[in-house]
Amino acid sequence: LHAATNSTIMLTPDEKIVCAVNQDSGTISLWSRLEPGKVREVVVGDEPRTLAISPDGSTIYITVQRSQALL
Question: Which candidate in 19, 26, 41, 66 could, as Cys together with 47 as Cys, close a disulfide (CB 3.0–4.6 Å)?
Answer without folding.
Answer: 66
